[in-house]
Records
---
Amino acid sequence: MKNKKQFYSGIILLILSFTLSPFIFNSNVSFRFIYGILLGYVIARGRFAFSGSLYRLFHYGTSKTAISFIQLFMLMVLFTGIFLVFDPSYYDLFINPTNPYLILGGIVMGATIVASKHTPTRCASGVFLSYTTSVTSFLLAVFFFGFGIFIAFPLQNPPTNNFVTSGKEIYIPDLFYNNTISIVISVLISLAYLYFLVFLAKKYELHRKKQGTYKEFYIEKIQESEQGYTFFEDVFVDYFSQRTTVILLFLITITIVFITKSYFGFSTSLGIFFGKVLIFFGMPLDSVVNYTNLSPVSFTTPFYNLPFTMQNIGLFIGSISYKLTSCTYFHTFKMSRSTFFSATIGSFILGITTRIIYGCVVGSLFATFASFSLSAWLLMPSIILGGYLGYYYEILFLRFFKTKK
């Protein structure tokens, strides 16, 4: 054990979080908080995030993490399909509007995630894991991501219909017979769609290898190899394999969906938190409410009574608990120029984009795909296309400056 203080701090943090939360929070908030801890721990130990998978796909040419993400989508589609067969009215599904601006927002999101040279711009849940890069970049990312969401709240909550809210909400089973058979058909075509994406990802990796631009990502290499040589390393330190990460995330997610009967996202609470900060520093509540078109309750309720805010805090606690119990935690206030722009401009753009596409990647893509919303079928290729454009722009940018020198 490298650092006993870190290890015991992490264990104490986890024990206190799990044992005290039922007494401090109401049942709904406590449940969300514990879910966030579990999710944060698994994501941190599995080094698993959508922004990272897209970044690795284009900057390294490796499709392993992207394919693992698609496999998680497949499992969730199967889970939702099975439960909808038994009771179609049981779940509050995420069915979002389908319009051209959804595609544009997806392209902007993908490009913003990938365009940074050294680190991906993180979206929502990934923001709470960015402290491992730099404490400063983490604080900046939280601030600017929340700022972007807050600024764009009127787009998603307008007094009258606008370009973001226009468009039809299309539930895929409704395109067929609107019965059990339609759900089965929806599951099958969704799986076929996802399998086709796996096929394209493998083809792209093969293309990069032939082109000589493929680079093995070191984390993926470690995950596939024998890591620990002691019991302590096996239990507390070793990265989860991608397969283990996918299975754990699936089990944790289906548990909360089954209990709460709905899917969820991570981004909106950051915008609300930003509004609370403005009110704390003197902005009138009426001004904030009139601008965002949200209920005053969102801004007057204490943060510890807001389920999704505590879910995000749990995400952070879970991820930092892994770093502590594995004795690998370190912090720095330094950051590269690329990380600075990613944490500020990139996070701000992504914050705005989440209102155009109706949420972060979890809310607008993961939850909607599992809910059989047609919007997800358009958003997925849009984000991938944006990722390619972001990578291509970054390559051209570097070539331009090399030529100038």
---
Amino acid sequence: MADVTISLPEDLKAYLDARASEDHSEPGAYLGALLRRDQELRRFRELILEGANSPVEGEADAAWFESLRERARNRTI
């Protein structure tokens, strides 16, 4: 792992310490979790925009949704 040093105002440092003690063992782990979540949200937004900009391929009617539910029911992990 790489080390990063940041400067925070006292109020943010206090908030970081409080959240870290609630959720994680140390502030670095909490910040790492926040950054991973940010990466996931950015990727999710990219996928949503990609889907929104893609061409429509057929009608999403009741039969389509039923086939989607059936695929979900039969999915194995």
---
Amino acid sequence: MFLLAAIFSAVVGVFIMAPALVEFRANFLNEKITAGHTAALATEEAANNIVSGALERELLESAGIQAVVVSQGGSRQMVLKSQLPMELIDRIDLRQEQGWQRYLALYKTFNRQGAGIIEVTNDSPSQRYASVTVLIWERLLYDALINYVLNSLWTILTFITALAVFLYFSLDWLVTRPLTKIRDSLVQFRDNPEMTLDYHASVQTPSNEIGEVQKELFRMQRDLQLAFKEKKNLASIGEAVAKINHDLRNLLATAQISSDTLQSVDDPVVKRLLPRLERSLDRAITICNNTLRFSKLETETANPETIELAMVLEDIIELESLSTFKNYTIKSDIPSDLVLWADLEHVIRIFSNLLKNASEAMPEGGTITLTVQNPDGANNFIDIILKDQGHGIPKAIQTTLFQPFIASDKKDGSGLGLAISKELVEANHGSIKVLETGPNGTSFLVQLPTKPDT
């Protein structure tokens, strides 16, 4: 991490140093222009503007230049010139240099390392001339740039070091430490999924992207723990059901044998109820097996057929009216000719669970209403609405209403009723949801197909 911060700081230092060098180069060349301008003015004091060789050399050496050319009235005049041989390697017009051209010229200077003479032109510092051109050894400019870099080196290194240290601790505080916490939390959760989650630590996360990751990680771990708990409950009930399943089936088989003996009883009520009793016993055995399968997380499989929904609901209501629904009024506005394409056993279990839940939501009695929203079966689906006059579904369980072992608000409830109903509805390619709930009651919407392959 520190190496990364140091590299970044060095890059930043380069970007800071480059403009400073460009500015230093421009100032150096302008100083030479000013010195050349001063030397040119000095020649005008001599007779006929002619100076002696000694004075010319002295003027050029004091200015650090090799020649001076002035422009005035559209003409150029060389007023001073060294007698040394000169090889011109570049012409620089400071009046035309802009932006990237200055950086390119700086690069050329470092690349040539002062190999010859350069010609530099700029506007005259005074109105005496239009422009001033000087010829100088580029080595002077190169050496001045190198000295400037060396003199600035300690300042640059101090800046880079301070910036690198600042970036290191900033990244460590803002990135490395939070990521380390996330890594440690993942490792601890992997080793012990049932660990106690630190809620306060999730709340005290920074308000940035990494903080959001920490909060989402906490939520994910919490949801996974709930899922683990649900699976443990499923495993527990599966073990319990497996233990009692054999004995329960034997008891139901005994009840079936007993029901067979009732066939000889010459009583019209017995003869009317006996077939329903036998079907109920068959369904009880099926439910026992399905509950065992549900506890083992096996998916329900539907065997759809054409079903007259009104007749099925009539059988459920009549069979249960002696016990479950004896204190309630059930109004069914289901058309007698309405048919579904679904598994008969599944439909019975779906509406038995919903009717039972509706009755339990009204401990003092009330009315349960069954209606169809679209009896014509638009889009090959029927929307059946079941409404009670209960107290509504508590907000605490509304989001987990169809999850097993979680959604029940009854003291002795398992939370399996709606979970099984949802699984059965979806097994028949339908859907179920809460349409509305409140102090005046709850409405469930069950959507089931009317034709195959929908």
---
Amino acid sequence: MLKGKDLISIHDLSADEVYEILDFAADLKVMQKNSIPHRYLEGKTLGMIFEKSSTRTRVSFEVGIFQLGGTGLFLSNILYIMHYFRKNNVTFLF
């Protein structure tokens, strides 16, 4: 039901879709507890940019993405780098 749908705001979801997400989360929790592999994010990468430094939040996201078969990429200083490039008229080539 949610495949291919982007989640921007919880308000964009119907009550049924919220229940579907919660049911799926409960299933994943049971699978994790029983050591049943679940690699739903195999081959996916999560790029993480945090406005404020938070080791606990970063580690939680990294563990979660790893448990689902994906990879977490922490972009620690990306905001500073982008500001520096703009200030010094450096052009991004990608």
